[in-house]
Amino acid sequence: MSVKFKNLTEAESFKELVSFPTPDIKNILSAERISKYNIKTGIGLDYNYSAKSVDKKLLKLFQQLADEQQVIEKYKEILHGSIMNPGEKRMVLHHYTRGVHDVEYKKGVSSKINLYKKQIERFSDFAEKVHSGKIKGSSGAKFDTAVQIGIGGSDLGPRALYLALKGFMQSGGQKPLINCEFISNVDPDDASDVMSRINPETTLFIVVSKSGTTQETLANTALVKDLIKSKSKSLDIAKHMIAVTGKGSPMENPLEFYKSFYIDDFIGGRYSSTSAVGGVILSLAFGSDVFNKLLEGAHSNDVMALENDILKNAPLLDALLSVYDRNILKTTTEAILPYSQALSRFPAHLQQLIMESNGKSVNFKGKLLKYETSPVIFGEPGTNGQHSFYQMLHQGTDIVPLKFIGFKESQQLNDVDFQGSTCQKKLNANLAAQITAFAIGHKDDNPNKNFPGGRNSDILIGQKLIPETLGSLLAHFENRTMFQGFLWNINSFDQEGVQLGKKLANKVLAGAQENPVLDAYSALFR
Amino acid sequence: MSVKFKNLTEAESFKELVSFPTPDIKNILSAERISKYNIKTGIGLDYNYSAKSVDKKLLKLFQQLADEQQVIEKYKEILHGSIMNPGEKRMVLHHYTRGVHDVEYKKGVSSKINLYKKQIERFSDFAEKVHSGKIKGSSGAKFDTAVQIGIGGSDLGPRALYLALKGFMQSGGQKPLINCEFISNVDPDDASDVMSRINPETTLFIVVSKSGTTQETLANTALVKDLIKSKSKSLDIAKHMIAVTGKGSPMENPLEFYKSFYIDDFIGGRYSSTSAVGGVILSLAFGSDVFNKLLEGAHSNDVMALENDILKNAPLLDALLSVYDRNILKTTTEAILPYSQALSRFPAHLQQLIMESNGKSVNFKGKLLKYETSPVIFGEPGTNGQHSFYQMLHQGTDIVPLKFIGFKESQQLNDVDFQGSTCQKKLNANLAAQITAFAIGHKDDNPNKNFPGGRNSDILIGQKLIPETLGSLLAHFENRTMFQGFLWNINSFDQEGVQLGKKLANKVLAGAQENPVLDAYSALFR
Fold first, then answer.
1. What is the distance between the alpha carbons of residues A284 and A263, in angstroms, rounded to a whole number?
2. What is the C-alpha to C-alpha distance for residues B295 and B95, in angstroms, rounded to an integer?
3. Which of A107, A204, B203, B233 is the most buried (most CB within 10 A)?
């Protein structure tokens, strides 16, 4: 690779940023700025950063920092097929699950791209046969339900996207083609709860694990089979089970799974929503047309993310602003606040995407870092959050950067005029009011009623949450996370921090008594 | 009042704490400590703080701090009926929704206690009549569904408690007596979604707003009525609507509501789960016996919270440890990690409870503070979180104090032995492993595989998540939040920080064009 890996704090532009004055958003915010600090980020989506503490001089330094950290070149290395996940010695190819890029690939990438394309064809075909009734349950009943059994990346992204599009499909009294449920937690009450709601005869179970060895997923599959047996003795369970896994994994077994769809090691779990991990269930739920539109939106963002100019590259600009918040303004958290009930679980997906990718203390070369990386990510939909934790955001002692998401129209278009305005108008009036209130504040002689303001935010805005827009939104955050990683000089694609817990849990289960502390904690649950 | 209000940093014991050495949990953790640093916290629940960075010397200073801040005396002032919410000039009486205390009340408190008792009788009776079919829908059909329309405290607590007990009712193939849904967000897609799942003929709507003027709740009620009309023209909607509101509020209207149940100004929204706000829907869902057991558990914690000795008062000890984390160790966030799928929305409730109560910058007397108050609260159930944000918790650059919740048994008791252990065993093996991994870490020459450890946590443990235990758990956090407020010298019972956003949103809706920034943001949604 011709790119160089340099710690954030070694970049000359970062050193300049440290001593550079931060503009007070209260003083610079204006109607003109609100219309100017607004750029596209993929199909159907705008990124408005007018309420961030940034001005032209800072933006110029941001551009220098992006150039110095060679973020576009590094993104291209990813697309070329370089080993950009050095911890696991792997390529990083999730962008190819949604479209091909006009770059020169290294050896071996083409066959991977073909694998991903082939899977889309295979699961599109499969979904169509389920919808038409050509593929049925073992008792001859048509499938009306799918249950995804997976955890982490095999759960959070697909679940968030399913919920995000369910309302879109429901508009005009429609329903999803297949109703979906998800089982993730090894807590047996999770499977019990889902199983109490569904009819196994008409249900297809999608077991998702790249390695084919995920403890929770295998245990839940065993529990689900057990519960089916006790409920519907005559069912041929293998005809109700399909797998999404790596080729050659222990899960690839035609005796247990009617069908298998494939992913590989070059798609990280938290970046796998647009692969078969999300594709199978979303195509079943909404049809492959809808899933393909989602891919189209994601690809549009991936293409735009190749722009060198940060004012034409929203995920990059967003990443720079977040690094400025974290490493210059020293914020420790970030709130994701979608004003859209359909995005109720989108913050949970982003929590994994960002914190698991960038919650690291070593750099790309494996050396210890001395500066802050991923903040804590949290969030709930507005206006719900307003009646919950916004008190702390407005008047608390810490500054929390806020990322709003909003849409001009509702998905399902049911609405009512009440006291002079619709619910959708009320929703967006609240959103506009909050951005303003956080930025400008309000002076009051009573300190208890005083709002200091100066609390910065940005917003992603779309016309309506449709599949293309959702794809852009998803890829915006994936690309922003990748760019953050380049700026921080870390590997955003491994997750060594999850290993120790797994290892110790297996020791407990094996009954080893070598660690008195571990034994004593285990004993609390006996 | 004979109590004195002093800022945290003015307390002599706090000044001592600042310069006092913090023990490294890695060095002091032992099997003996794990069994010793364990106390009761209400019926069915233990509080184990063995993995907190605390030793006997620090505990002694904590006791001095609690004494100096007169936290027990202040709690007694609350029970007496003093104006302990000075911002709104109100008493704070939520403890009386679950039992009477052996203290001398001030004038007027008795009549309030009688109101709360009376409501329990009224909604128990009502729930029984709905269950027996004495009260039916307007078409003569029995009610099988209840939909709560409320937001903030009228939504998060009741919803979290409903989900927490649903599995308990489901064990052995049972179901809740009445199936429940919740509509909160003013986004019209929220109501659309719920309405697509229910049959209005067999549904009772519970509209909850103390003031009777909550914008979201009134708008959602109008939207729900509109959707019912378009679906079931002949239904007498008023016979399907009941209210939980303040006496004399604009919502108290027998023409619109078949029945009204009452709360008053002395029960804050986020503390109202054990009042009619949670009581009506939980009694409908599970029967009044279950709700009464929840109250019993909560009351047991309230009584224990009167203990002066911090080693016999778990919510107080927990509050002291959290203030130590925040103001001495300078942590900025706190993760709530229930290893119980039934508690999936409990962190969202606590997020409101803690951040809205204690996310303040002024003291009890309304003067600006110069130290940190509420951290950001976030969390998801384990083991799900392990596959999501735990990477950052283990190896990220910031320390996040962790609060685990666990139970020896699952609720529904369905389980399977897979690869030598049940799912429940796997769940708890993971929990024991995580506490140990966070505290002790693991040394590795490869910095990428190194775990620094020293990341402190505590855990609330019960035998099983039954109603009494859930009540203890709820009250533990309410009382802990109250004690935090006393330690920080703030008013935990008002929420002035929500007002500015409301005001500006109303300006937008009224079409006022006086604020160009507000207008420009509003224009983004047109």
1. 18
2. 10
3. A204
> Where residue B140 falls among pLDDT bands split at 50, 70, 90?
very high
For A106, A267, B289, the CA distances from A103, given in Å and listed in that order, are 10, 19, 67
User: Rounded to two decimals, what is the model's pTM?
Assistant: 0.97
Q: Which amino acid is at A171?
A: S
Catalytic annotation present for A101: no
Name the nearest CA neighbour of B200 among B135, B145, B150.
B145
A445 contacts chain B (CB < 8 A)? no
Active site residue B442: no
Question: Are A61 and A67 spatial neighbours (Cβ–Cβ below 8 Å)?
Answer: no
Question: Quick check: helix, strand or coil at residue B2?
Answer: coil
The pLDDT mean for chain B works out to 96
Compare all CA atoms of chain A with the CA of B344 and give the residue at the minimum distance: A190
B209 CB within 8 Å of a chain A CB: no
Residue B395, both tokens: 């190896």
Kind of pairing between the strands at A457-462 and A45-48: antiparallel
Residue type at B328 in one-letter notation: I
| Residue A187: closest CA among B337, B75, B84, B402 | B337
Indicate if B514 belongs to the active site: no
Helix (H, G, I), strand (E, B) or coil at A143: coil
What pLDDT, in 10s, does the model give residues A362-421? 999 999 999 999 999 999 999 999 999 999 999 999 999 999 999 999 999 899 999 999
Best CA proximity match to B117, nearest among B93, B83, B142, B135: B93
Q: In chain B, what is the straight-line distance between the N-terminal and C-terminal CA atoms, in Å?
A: 54
Give the whole-angstrom CA distance, residue A220 versus residue A190: 9
Overall average pLDDT of the B351-359 stretch = 98
Sign of the alpha-carbon dihedral angle for A390, A396, A402, A408: positive
A451-477 b/e (C-beta count within 10 Å ≥ 16 → b): bbbbbbbbbbbbeebbbbbbbbbbbbb
Q: For residues B135 and B143, what is the distance between their CA atoms, to the nearest angstrom?
A: 8
Nearest by CB to residue B34, choosing from A153, A189, A521, is A521
* Three-state DSSP class for residue B405: strand
Beta-bridge mates of residue B405: B338, B460
B345 confidence band (pLDDT: 50, 70, 90): very high
A7 touches chain B (CB under 8 A): no
Which residue in the set A351, A381, A509 is minimally distant from B425, CB to CB? A509
User: Helices in B207-250 by DSSP H: which ranges?
Assistant: 215-231
Instruction: Give pLDDT tens digits for B412-421.
Output: 989 999 999 9
Q: What ipTM was predicted for this assembly?
A: 0.97
Contacts with A, B 236-255, CB within 8 Å? none
Q: What is the CA radius of gyration of chain A?
A: 24
DSSP-derived 3-state class of residue B459: strand
State the virtual CA torsion across A262, A264, A266, A272 in degrees, nearest 10. 40
Six token digits for residue A276: 């078969």
Region B145-161: what's the mean pLDDT? 98
Q: What is the DSSP string of A214-235?
A: -HHHHHHHHHHHHHHHHH-TT-
Q: Do A497 and B414 touch (CB under 8 A)?
A: no
Can you tell me the distance from the alpha carbon of A58 to that of B234, in angstroms, rounded to the nearest whole number? Answer: 63
Q: Do B372 and A397 touch (CB under 8 A)?
A: yes
* Residues 6 or more apart whose Cβ sits within 8 Å of residue B476: B41, B42, B45, B47, B301, B314, B315, B318, B460
